[in-house]
Structure of Transposase:
Amino acid sequence: MSSKYKFNNPEGIYFVSFAVIGWIDVFSRQIYRDLFLESLVYCRKEKNLNIHAWVIMSNHVHLIISCKAGFILSDIMRDLKKYTAYKILKEIKESTTESRKEWMLFLFAKAGKENSNHTNYQFWRQDNHPIALDFHSNMFEQRLDYIHNNPVEAGIVEHAADYVYSSAKDYQEGKGLIEIDVLQ
């Protein structure tokens, strides 16, 4: 099995991307973005996840993360994805206003049936695509710029710091929605 896209260095800094199955635009609704953010905050406080940069797009997430010594980044990511899937699916199922409810649940159930790792629904694609970053290289800055400019490239905002669901504001203007761990 290839080690190209794994969390090989326990003390490393990683760029990760993960998407909703079928690239379903779940995060076009604020409630689902907020549920994801709550989980990120929890993982930062309780599971010792370091969040260096982040963005939530309509159907995927990009992060630059690491973890404190003695913790395992792949375990934190597994728990983050499992819990956010549970919370978001619960919210969709219980929603009385979600116009896409039946369609989304059908697709999540179909993906779950096709994947032996799931019993009912599959929310996230299996991969995280982690890429190790060297903080002192251009690659770190390139990934940081990529994350922050994703909403600009998608035509959502004109300036990266204007997109609320991103850490761009933390790097350009001050405090954003959640506390991040800025590398010096």
Summary: The mean pLDDT is 91. The domain at 13-96+124-172 is CATH 3.30.70.1290 (Alpha-Beta Plaits). The helical segments are 30-46, 73-94, 101-113, 138-153, 168-172. The chain has one domain: 13-96+124-172.
